[in-house]
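User: Here's a chain of 433 residues. Predict its fold as tokens.
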Amino acid sequence: MTPIQLSSKINNQISLLVITTKKAKWAELGFSKEEATYIAKKIKQEDNFITINRFESLVFVQLIEEFEKKNTAATYEAYRGIGHKIAGAINAHKYDSFQISSTEKVSFELLCVAEGAALGNYQFIKYLSSQKTKNTLQSITIVSNTISQINIDELNIVNDAVYQARNLVNEPQNVINAVTFAKEMQKMGKAAGFKVEVLHKSQIESLKMGGLLAVNRGSITPPTFTIMEYKPAKAINKKPFVIVGKGVVYDTGGLSLKPTPNSMDSMKCDMGGGAVACASMYAIAKAKLPYHVIALVPATDNRPGGDAYTPGDVITMYDGQTVEVLNTDAEGRMLLADALAYAKKYKPELVVDFATLTGAAAAAIGQYGIVCMGTANEDTKTSLKESGNNVHERLVEFPFWDDFATLIKSDIADMKNIGGPVAGAITAGKFLE
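Assistant: Prediction complete.
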């Protein structure tokens, strides 16, 4: 992770971003006469982001007038983009640090720049034999008297958690399988201070988690079911929040085999929901938030092995309901259903379920947001959407009408695991409901 630190003074020896206005007094900000003339020229050309190369460092000037017509959330994301841009320039010049300051009364904007730079500096190059492409940026400093150390600490925790989630998603399946994924979650629990219990195949069988076991049948690696819990002494919530994450460490589609080009080759990422779950627990525990939170991650790969589950099978799930399998590539909902049913034992305040997008969801909105749906009350949905907007992880709510439930009715079981050619993301949600 690229650490962010706080300072009260600018260091004139390292690169700097100044957030200011067109009316700034450039000489008072330490710019030379030639630099001030250059800035004035760029402003006349309506350039709002100005770069000055001082040969030993770079100075960037960002004019806040650029964001006058943007809404707050869009402005925050624009500042993250500036941080990303600056990180690229710092690395291109082989510098190891830069600092961020402002002449204006802005605080969260500075944090957004730092966040964008830190996340933009992420790399996954551990398997490259040569490290010549390794980024040189090693630290970011915010120069401010209005931001507290608590703000910095929280941002570093979140960025650390994001890095860990990205690392898990980027690891190949021959490194992160269901068993090693559970071990990684145990490591994160130990590092952050939350409890981790891993259920192995015999325990999963005794619980009769038919969905998870069915998906695992084609694999030679046993499944795991990881239970994480963070419960501070004075938790605000009487009933826990539960996070459920899809842990399909590799998805071939099973007997309903995926095509390889642009499909199966990225399926090591299908445990992204599980990575979100454990990374969220890591951030919550590290930040010592006053909430009781539980996370559940059912994990397996989905392969067309000799005993793989087949289209036409009827599976009895953890809660006793039966499912007619019509597509083995609709596997995530099979193991998530078991986890959601298991979550009922905690009598939770709220359950949030994370999984990689279904093809139908991706077709609807592309990579520009997160498809969501569910039965939470409207106030909760509004809060989640507002939070999503603030970090540019925008939630797009799909309708959840009862009509869609008719699409997964089965003639021989309680339901089918797919609903046909229309509303595929919604019928997946209805299945989990």
